[in-house]
Amino acid sequence: MTSWCIVCDVGGTNIRIARSDGPKQLSHLSLEATARCTSLPEALQQFWLQFDDRESLLGAAIAAAGPVESGSVTLTNGPLTIERDAVSAVIGGRPVALFNDLEATAYAVPLLTSEDLLPVVAVSNPTSGPRLVVNVGTGFGAALLLQTTTGWQSVATEAGHVTLGVLEQRGSIEHTTSGAVSVEDRISGLALSAATSQPFDQTAFSLEFGELFGGVCGNFVLATGAWGGVNLCGSVASAWCRAGEFASFTAAFRDKGRMSKRMECVPVSEIVLPQPALIGLTFVRQF
User: Fold this and answer.
1) Whose CA is closest to 120, among 190, 257, 201, 218?
2) Are 285 and 5 in contact (CB under 8 A)?
């Protein structure tokens, strides 16, 4: 029988589990609301046991929306904690690899084709270099992708918790935290949910969101040297891309003083390939 693995993407809103029989191969996709999951090991065990060739399972690769520390990860925007050993125990002691969700998504980027991407900021003469993946969903996340002598290396970050300047903190998007305002407090599904409970001008909000989003993405390019481009993903980023208001984003993305000319050569695209985090896991499962 052919060996296979379980791949799982645990986000702040949904948990996606699939079977992978090889790189970029997904089947039997299962979707569950994160809030309804009381035990991820149990959910993964039930998924595993449905297959007649369950003994051919190699292991499980899990991406989660939080930092990975000492074999576990706790969701940044949720109470769920995932323990590598606990998952391994319910799938017959097989190995389990844990990744940050954006770290996993970034590994899919080198494999994307033109059909998997839609231009947001198109350039005629793109530069080469590291790439940045930015996810705006329930929260805000980012990962850097570096090309090394042995292949691509993804570096997880907690960019969503970078604090904003005083002027960037102002605007129609309310925040509920005390003290400094983070990127995630202004650009995320959580921020939008807070904003919808307050009256605001839809047109002004759209322009403000695009300008702030573009400025933040441009700042992250400068901070990480991601001259190879920015790839956007996530439910909020996708909805914003469908609105098609890119002018304010582009202006703020490129308005970087002495680096403005260089920023004109940095492309920005939306990842439209379904399940990019799961696809990334099919390549870096580590077993």
Assistant:
1) 218
2) yes
In this structure, which amino acid lies at residue 67?
P
Is the four-CA dihedral 48, 50, 55, 56 of positive or negative sign? negative
More confident residue, 111 or 134: 134
Residue 208 has pLDDT above 50, yes or no: yes
pLDDT at residue 199 in the model: 42
pLDDT digits (tens, 9 = 90+) for 154-179: 999 999 999 987 555 555 445 445 56
- Collapsing DSSP to helix, strand or coil, 231 comes out as strand
Q: Which of 78, 128, 59 is nearest to 266 (CA)?
A: 128
pTM equals 0.88
* Residues 267 and 119: beta-carbon distance below 8 Å: yes
Query: In terms of DSSP H, where are the helices of the chain?
Result: 40-49, 84-90, 101-108, 166-169, 183-186, 189-196, 202-224, 235-243, 247-254, 260-263, 276-281
Q: Read off the DSSP letter of residue 163.
A: B
Domains of the chain: 4-104+276-281 (3.30.420.40), 113-271 (3.40.367.20)
CB 136 within 8 A of CB 240: yes
Residues constituting the chain: 287
Q: Is the dihedral of CA 50, 53, 55, 60 positive or negative?
A: negative
